[in-house]
Amino acid sequence: MAVIAIIANPNARRNREWPLASEQLRKAAPGATILETRGPEELAGVAKAVAKDRPRVLAIAGGDGTVTHTVTALYNTLGDDLPPLALLGGGAYDSLAPLGGRGDAEGRLRRLSEALASGTELRVEQRDTLRIVPDGSKSGARCGFRFGVGLPVRFIEAIYATGNAGPLASTRVLARAFWSSLRRGPFARKLYAPMDLRVRLDGEEWPRIEIYGLVCSSVAEAGLGLRPFRRATEQPGAFHVLGLTAGPRQFALELPRLLLGLPARRDRLLEGVGEDLELSARAPLSWLLDGEIYTSKTGRIAVGLGPRVSLVRP
Fold first, then answer.
1. Is residue 9 over pLDDT 50?
2. b/e string for 58-72 if b means 16 or more Cβ within 10 A?
3. How far apart are CA 195 and CA 153, in angstroms?
4. Helix 151-161 vs helix 167-183: angle between axes, to the nearest 10 degrees?
5. For the purposes of burial, counting CB atoms within 10 Å of the CB of 38, is it exposed (0-12), middle (13-18) or buried (19 or more)?
6. 253 near 264, Cβ under 8 Å?
7. CB 3.0–4.6 Å: which of 56, 195, 201, 230 could bond 274 by disulfide?
């Protein structure tokens, strides 16, 4: 396998809308191996090829969902020994792309290829991943960077309902949610549906108060240039957990501070840093991992640590 291997999802938005996407990636990194994956079976095969040939850098051309599926497949095959990853972006929901540096996919890949060819030292950042185990089934475990239930799931569903999950659509839905929350409008009432949820972080149970949503992240970034998870990288081998307890208007007033990475008021948000999160609900529970939405049939979900990965930022 070449020094750079590229996992490309033909179903990613950019690749669907631009038939020449793969050709442009080849031009940006001459000699790189492009591995197209359309589903879990192809990803599993690619993971075995990566384990055998060990490229120096594995680039991922696709959105957040592609990243999640790729990291999961690699972890299932290689365990914690993943090659350095370069996130190129290119999907419908692309909030993880800033972890791969600036510019478009071709620009990032070109800089990476030139740096490897010239022997320039690569800029690498270490990041933990999350490992989600729903319903007690390790065979259904998935790895990613950001997990959520409740309000985060409903927010992403509202973005997808627009038919365009790009940054502009995300910004519009965020603005709509903010103004509806200030007025306690119908959109806010839908987003803030209360949850019957029990939460245990590192063995300690959170207070049994009404929670509208919960999110945890191992990276500070949240897309759109926002960094609400200010404690996500505070401690290697741990992740940041936020539980929303404030109603729509109170949280709307707190949102600017949270999105800028400033501490929120404790009467509006529960938070902690840990390495083992257990959730239980009395009904099936929808959950979000890096833009992909799933359902726990039993309402039981365990969140722990996945592999610690090296992210290349050319």
1. yes
2. bbbbbbbbbbbbbbb
3. 12
4. 120
5. exposed
6. no
7. 201
The structure tokens listed for 267 are 């009467």
CA distance 144 to 128: 9
Calculate Rg over the CA atoms of the chain: 19
Identity of the residue numbered 155: F
Q: Within a 10 A sphere around the Cβ of 237, how many other Cβ atoms? A: 9
Sheet order of strands, 285-289 included: 269-274, 239-244, 213-217, 146-150, 285-289, 292-296
Closest CA to 145 of 293, 301, 297, 288: 288
Tell me which residue of 144, 283, 142, 157 sits closest to 216, measured CA to CA. 144
Q: What is the identity of the amino acid at 45?
A: G
Tokens of 237: 């081998």
Asked if 53 and 4 count as a contact pair (C-beta separation under 8 A), the reply is no
Amino acid, single-letter form, for residue 185: G
Q: What is the pTM of this model?
A: 0.88
* 290: region left, alpha or beta (phi > 0 left; psi from -120 to 50 alpha): left
Average pLDDT over residues 44-61: 91
Contact in structure between 178 and 255 (CB atoms under 8 Å) = yes
CB 86 within 8 A of CB 116: no
